[in-house]
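Backbone-to-sequence.
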């Protein structure tokens, strides 16, 4: 399966209901929600209050990306606010495996993310355990950056590992993804594409999503 996840961070915050509706109409599957605490990353975004407000206006799958220092402290608040999956950063905690288990014990799907400088191999033990793996293709913290091509090698490494293990892995890429580089992402093995600027800053998000889906159809691993 293939999923497109618009990142709300790039939306017009004065008009969220319409912005989300625009993504639904364009054929998005997920809504990617970037939670930043000004500590794990040098930026602050929004919290569970906003998530629960927008929960009332859409049925999109809420893909909550926690870029915060103490994910367990806030996980329950995001679950209550309507998250459908919670992804935390491997680098943000002492014991990622126990964080994963704690969140999954709440019957909440849980993903693990790595920043560009973290090697792919640290996530091998999570392939088959985590509900999703997120490879950041930019330094986390801000929308509108350019995808770092070397990060796609890690996507390839993780996809190959999953194929070898027989795991049907949800592998998400996040940061600088556009209609033009989507093919490289899917070719490397990604099957969940997050895009902020590429979807919210265009008047024709449907065309961008279509191009992303076409890129997946050329995908060599997951036919
Ligand atoms: C960056 C966030 C991304 C970001 C993506 O820290 O995790 O989700 O909003 O935005 P674009 O697609 O503009 O890079
Ligand atoms: Zn994100």
């Amino acid at each position: 399966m293939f999923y497109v996840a618009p990142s709300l961070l790039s939306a017009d915050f004065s008009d969220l209901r319409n912005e989300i509706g625009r993504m639904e109409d364009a054929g998005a599957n997920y809504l990617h929600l970037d939670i930043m605490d000004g500590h794990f990353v040098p930026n602050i975004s929004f919290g569970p209050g906003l998530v629960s407000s927008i929960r009332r206006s859409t049925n999109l799958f809420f893909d909550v990306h926690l870029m915060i220092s103490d994910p367990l402290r806030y996980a329950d608040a995001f679950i209550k606010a309507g998250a459908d999956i919670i992804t935390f950063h491997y680098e943000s905690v002492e014991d990622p495996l126990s964080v994963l288990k704690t969140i999954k014990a709440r019957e909440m799907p849980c993903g693990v993310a790595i920043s560009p400088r973290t090697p792919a191999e640290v996530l091998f033990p999570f392939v088959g355990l985590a509900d999703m793996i997120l490879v950041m293709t930019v330094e986390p913290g801000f929308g509108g950056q350019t995808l770092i091509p070397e990060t796609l090698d890690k996507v390839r490494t993780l996809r190959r590992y999953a194929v070898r293990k027989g795991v049907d892995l949800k592998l998400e890429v996040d940061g600088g993804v556009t209609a033009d580089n989507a093919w490289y992402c899917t070719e490397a093995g990604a099957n969940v594409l997050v895009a902020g600027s590429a979807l919210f800053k265009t008047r024709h998000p449907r065309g961008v999503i279509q191009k992303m889906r076409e890129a997946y159809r050329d995908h060599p691993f997951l036919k």
